[in-house]
């Protein structure tokens, strides 16, 4: 109720909606801008009044509505980010909701490539008694419905059909690459079925295309998984004429924003290890 009155006041300050017309861009613009401001103040001030002081009189005053209304440009959307800068968490350090991959190597050359997943939130929701960690829930990695292999990518073949005491087929691919018995690469990624192709791309970039490890992780990725019969390119990554050519060869092209999170360690000839974080996750780090 407070919020409704408040938004109405902002709108009234700017002009008569009836004159601007139902559904007109100007009317919708005013409604959007007042909704934006109303919700910002909702986030900033509102909650159980027994717990925090709400500046009700100010929020519902005509002066305050006037101040906010003066801020609205009639021909330009304002930025939610700029308006609420003081309460938005600016740091990008949030914990990913996804499966995690990390690669580790110690001074003696002992290495770990670890892809960790709970799959869904809280996994199977069972905590191992006395150990304090959750068990994951990988059940959806089984083929669920016998015979239901369809163009959308559901697989119903026998080998991975769900059954008691059976382990499901996973895509997680923590990887070591060795050359002449020497470790050269530790890598892996989250990303469900795309994991396999993310790892393929990083390994090929190093072993076939001679890229340095930073390039090998940064270069754009692509994914094809048989069905659906489409190739998914990281958007803005590949030159348009390359995509066009593939399209003309009959590939069904789709785009995805990002693929994988391939934290990688490259070990050079003299044994120096170089850690490469994947910039696709902004809070990732490589540390020594
Ligand atoms: O093996 C799989 O396909 C999944 N269990 C992996 C989980 C995963 O990568 C979820 N992703 N971001």
Structure description:
The protein has 288 residues and is of the alpha+beta class. It is 29% helix and 14% strand. It has 9 helices and 9 strands. Helix 1 (2-14) packs across helix 5 (62-70). The mean pLDDT is 91. The structure holds 6-diazenyl-5-OXO-L-norleucine. 6-diazenyl-5-OXO-L-norleucine binds at residues 98-99, 117, 119, 138, 141, 170-172, 190-193, 195.
Q: What's the quick description here?
A:
With 288 residues, this protein is of the alpha+beta class.
Low-confidence stretches: none
Proportion in β-strands: 5-15%
Named once each, the bound ligands are: 6-diazenyl-5-OXO-L-norleucine
> What's the shape?
elongated
Number of helices: 9
Give the N-terminus to C-terminus distance in angstroms. Answer: 55 Å
Strands of the widest sheet, in order across it, are 3-4-8-9
Rg, Cα atoms, Å: 27 Å
Return the average pLDDT rounded to an integer: 91
